[in-house]
Design brief:
Length: 160
């Protein structure tokens, strides 16, 4: 028998609400820590390679006592040009145990212009969408088996 959550509906955070966004920040922090369990020892540049999946690239952009800023992406070659999609910067707040998308670029590969979705636009809905994307992407990467372990051969300290 499965036990269902018995939280009254009036106490559940509404999608795109501030409370739901804060909850998503917490979930994303936990997922990033599963993806990078040894974040304190993580090389500045790493790649996670899993058979049958795209290589996942990680770069530690900044480390402070209470925060870590990461760049997370896949790399594609398109007509002789390297593209990073999605191209995401995320800040982890270790004291609050939250992770927030700082910047997200989703480029389409086509013959025309390359539209980008940029953070920096004020508003709860924009933050919700960016962090919801991170939420889904992290779970996808974890299901594929991606991990960044500081002492394994799946890591490459000097990535192009």
């Amino acid at each position: 028998m499965l036990l269902e959550r018995q939280t009254p509906s009036h106490l559940e955070p509404r999608p795109e609400s501030f409370a739901a966004l804060m909850e998503m920040y917490e979930e994303n922090y936990l997922a990033l820590r599963r993806l990078c369990p040894e974040l304190e020892r993580q090389p500045v540049r790493s790649v996670s390679r899993v058979a049958g999946a795209l290589d996942l690239y990680l770069e530690v952009l900044e480390r402070t006592r209470y925060t870590t800023t990461l760049h997370l992406t896949y790399r594609f070659d398109h007509q002789g040009e390297r593209r990073e999609q999605p191209d995401m910067r995320v800040r982890l707040f270790h004291d609050a145990r939250q992770a927030e998308v700082l910047e997200l670029h989703c480029r389409s590969i086509g013959d025309g212009a390359v539209p980008e979705m940029l953070s920096g636009h004020p508003g709860l809905v924009c933050r919700w969408r960016h962090n919801r994307f991170l939420y889904k992407w992290l779970r996808y990467c974890l299901r594929q088996g991606h991990r960044f372990l500081a002492d394994t051969e799946s890591q490459v300290a000097a990535v192009e």
